[in-house]
Amino acid sequence: MDQQKVIDESITLDVLQPKLNKLYLVCSINSKEPFTDPETIQTDFITQKSETLMALKIPKLFAYIGLAGTKAVQNKQHEEFPNQLLSCFRLLDADNIIGGYMDGRIIQKQISTQRVMKEFNRQNSEIIIKKKPIKIHIFQKNFVTLFLEGVICIYHQDYQMLKFQGEYEKFIRLSFQYHKKLVSQKTLKKFEDPNFHYNYLNHGEFSNFQFCQQKMNPVYLFRFEAMSINHIEILPFSPLEHLNKPEQRMDNGLCLAMSGLDGYFRLLDAMNNKPLFSFKTECCGICSFSFNPNFSSVCLGAQDDSAYVVNFNSKISWIRLLGHNSFISRGVFSSISATEFRIICGCYDGTISITDVNLNELNPENSLFVRAQEKEKVLQVKNIQSVSQDGVANLAEYQNYIVCMNFDGVIKIFLLL
User: 211 and 221 in contact (C-beta within 8 Å)?
Assistant: First the structure.
């Protein structure tokens, strides 16, 4: 076993020889600090100059890991000062991150020089932006941030001001006209100011309070009520229109995807404040979600010890994956070939499952598994392997690399062959 200390004295990277099984352990990173909150550990992948880098964010540390064969070598490191606790990030390129700080600031920073490229929410006198940003997701030049208490902000990297004039004011007026029957005239008059408006969406499934302040930088801000949001992503199009009506695809739009402990997965047209889709699990909350590469389906990690795979097509369909003994922290897709794909699930019981699916077993009418249809939309997970004694807090996959971030503070990187 080749052992290297590559980050600092608190981080140890162990490079191990492959074992003769389907899941090969590439390396193990011990932070020596338990992960009590899955949101404090995040990972992302990027390919630069034919080299794959894994950007890893764990408490008080940011590092790059270069993946080459079965070797893992740390390239760069970054540690925040104690009074600037970095709470979340999303990799932009090989030397830039977007970071959310405890005081509500969001900063785009160059890691090698420590130079701040852009800063959002700099004038943090507003109560709302003093909340801790707990999740960030970026798609192209737009990024979305989840704050505590169900607040979601959408930002754009090229401009840092809210749109109060023109089309935005027109949208506000149209929104009030559309929701006249749901909002009292007194409330309607109170919130006619283009900086401030309120409405209900989709008969209560979306209960949304939206407001804007000039001291903040987001393009849009939402405050969702009666929802415990824990995972968000932003897309430049709706998966429903992307698949079923490509001529109506929202190329210039913003689709907000979110899940919560109320058991709902939701898609929202952020520009028009319009609900697009919602799916509710049978009796539990959702820990996280992941889209497959072509956005034709989404995998929901649920708290009923199962994962739900929802297909976006003309006949919305879903299956439920059973076999784990605790919460599914995250489920991700992995392509095998043109006719097969994998669903990989991490679980609070310390195991991961690898379920191979043959596309020939799908029902072409609605993309459901034929065998699953016969068993009331239930499919048994396969190839369950133990990777931790304290549970898998988060899971990531990239080109057959699987990263398991465990609650005991150990991060394991596997090569799946």
Answer: yes
